[in-house]
Amino acid sequence: MTAEKWSLEVDRRRCVGNGMCVAVAPEHFTLTDGRSSPISAQVAPAEEVTEAFELCPMSAITIRDAAGAEIDPTR
Amino acid sequence: MTDTTAQFPFPPTSPEKAHEQMRRIREDRPMTQVQYAFGGKVWAIHRHAAVKQMLEDRRFVRKPFATGAMEVPYPVQFPDFLKTTMQFADPPEHTRLRRLVAKAFTMRRVELLREKTRRFAEDLLDAMERKGPPADLVRDYTLQVPILVLSELLGVPAADRDKFTAWSQVMLATNGLSEQELAEHGAALYTYLVELIAARRAEPADDLLSALATAREKDDSLTDEEILPIAMLLLVAGFDNTANFATQGVLALLRNPDQLRVFLADIDGVAPTLADEVLRHGGFALGNDVEGSAGLVPFVATEDVEIDGQLVRAGECVMADISTANHDENAFADPERFDVTRSPNPHLTLSHGLHHCLGASLARMEMQVIIGSVFRRFPGLALAGEESYATDFLTAGMSSLPVTW
Description:
The complex is a heterodimer.
Chain A (H helix, E strand, L loop, with lengths): L5 E5 L9 H5 L4 E4 L2 E4 L3 E2 L3 H9 L5 E4 L5 E2 L4
Antiparallel strand pairs in A: 1-4, 1-5, 2-3, 5-6
Chain B lengths: L9 E4 L1 H14 L2 E6 L3 E6 L2 H9 L3 E2 L1 H5 L12 H4 L9 H10 L4 H5 L2 H18 L3 E2 H6 L1 H11 L6 H8 L10 H24 L5 H12 L4 H32 L1 H9 L1 H19 L4 E3 L6 E3 L3 E3 L2 E3 L4 E4 L1 H4 L34 H18 L4 E2 L4 E2 L8 E3 L1 E3 L1
Parallel strand pairs in B: 3-10
Antiparallel strand pairs in B: 1-6, 2-3, 4-7, 5-14, 7-10, 8-9, 11-14, 12-13
Helix pairs in contact in B: 7-9, 7-17, 9-10, 9-13, 10-11, 11-12, 13-15, 13-17, 14-15, 15-17
GO molecular function (chain B): heme binding; iron ion binding; monooxygenase activity; oxidoreductase activity, acting on paired donors, with incorporation or reduction of molecular oxygen
Organism (chain B): Thermocatellispora tengchongensis
Keywords (chain B): Heme, Iron, Metal-binding, Monooxygenase, Oxidoreductase
């Protein structure tokens, strides 16, 4: 588990700049031109990233495992 | 203002003339300082890019309205209970409140409610069909679906839905209730919610009131005084507004047969773009007179901010004039056209940024289901009279729409 990395994507076409991700995971997301993007594309699994994923109103955040498969860490 | 024919606000006029007026306003200046009956002056921002810039700038806040330090500048008075909700909070308070409810309204979660919403719609259409035409589409259908969905979401038991629906009429523009009935229903709704929250706290279920009630237990962060206004806000925003936009969508299609044909040819495929186009342009597509009057809930500038060349001074209020911004040719091709397949459609009706509508995905899904289901059932749906409107309420909407099939 510790060696595992998540890769993060934000669909900027869907993003409405609500900023929940930045509010709960400021080390992982940032708003530029009113839209969110991940600060680094590869991160260690973290609870606040899961919360950002879960709270995004547009469900615009995608998390992938090391193999590139989409995952839902809330399940 | 240099163009004296570009006044804002402007009185009701035909959609064609309103388009022309709004174009002149946008060309002339980014914003107009307007004086309202309540709360005084506010800058109404007209250009799409300028509205977005303001909504993305955290130097514009709402706390002074919530504390009562300033009155909200608006043509009508805002009810006090709304001012205690997250809509009038700034970060970090806003984050704390929104975080508690946001999970229930994400696009993924809302999709899980689509089938249930469809069943609510189908049951209501069955009842309409059994009774036979004509029907009042607002009373019998477009108003009923959102209240059933909200009951489901909040966790109102099926056995209580009839009385819950009746009491919730106090939240409606067009309830037709006497002052005594209003007070009675309001008190009954309040008491009912308090009891339901207590019950869910004792025995949580998989619904929003349980989530709110137990959130308080976990970190002692949410009191009943906070939960109740949230529940009321969900009712007032999610009930009346959703019903009104859905009704507007049905009527807009009936008044624009070319677009109705496009929709009927592929209901499920077109429903998503139709819903957003109704949000952007529904009021214009009805063919009735439209006015340039107000916009979304205002903000207060905490310091001097320049937007699109106009200085907004610290302490002054700003407001998104979404009607004018939603027809900005710099953001929309052929903005005066009602185009049910429009994509992309960056309208600002559900706001943008921090206060982007919490229920946006839910509202879209409900509109898609409500409009799609009625035209699938009655492809020959037609008007059986004139629609009527409520005019003396915050969310002034359509109060009846007589239809036949």
